[in-house]
Structures are given as structure tokens and as C-alpha cells.
Amino acid sequence: MRLTNFSKRTITILLSASIFICCSDKPATGQTNSSDQKETTAPQGKPNLGVPIPELKFADDVKKYIRDILAAPLPADYVLPADMLAAKSYDECVSMVNIHYPQFTNLESDALLRAVKENPMVYQEMMLEARSVRERYFPGSQPKRTN
Known about the structure:
Shape: globular
Helix content: 40-55%
Radius of gyration: 25 Å
């Protein structure tokens, strides 16, 4: 098989490009290096309910995290935001929680699991607020921490 000058140049260019792409520090568009990947662990800071944020890779990890949040006692010193303290009803407070945390509003099943996986710390904040609202209107319905 005889290659023309055009074919030789094309092959040389393609080989050079593939070597450059393979050895580049930055990934090609649409790809990620392990150092560029977004962490699935918690942002810095102390979780409000005290539930550590684990690595959330699978749906079962997220479900366990949600169960841990639901089982965690409320901090005894937590104070609801001022707008919720001024609310006149439970329903009004629930509406405010939905306004404060729209990324979780009206989600179920897989959509909720994805939202929790993407925002584990914010989900914990929302659950603290929502559970504190329940405790305000239905005293004794939520376990509390003493310290």
C-alpha cells in the first residue's frame, strides 16, 4: 500500500494530536480528571443536626443518610428563623420551608435522592428547620438533644 503525501501528513497530525490529548494535564471537553471531579462529601462546616455527611455514591448511601437525619435529635438551643416565629400557623411555616429550600420542594423518589446527594448539608439544614416547625406546633413530636 502506497501512501500519498496528503495521507502521511494526515496520519502525522492525527498521531500528534492523540499524543497531545493523552498527555495533557487538562481533560478533553466533556471529560474529567479525578482531581477535577466534584467531591460528593460535605462542604466545610459543622452539620446542623450533627449527622456526619458520608460519601454519597449510591442510592442506598443517600437513603441511609436521610434515615440518620430523621433519627437525629434536634439541638435544644436551635431557634427558628424570625419569619417562621412570626407565622400564625403550621401550614404557613411549612410553606416557608418550601420557599427557603426550593431545591427539595415537591420531589419524590429518585429526584429527591439526587437532590440530597447534590446538597447534603443544605438538606440537613432544611430537615432541621422542618422538624423544628413540627416541634413548635406539636411539642414532644421530635427528640431533642440536651446540650
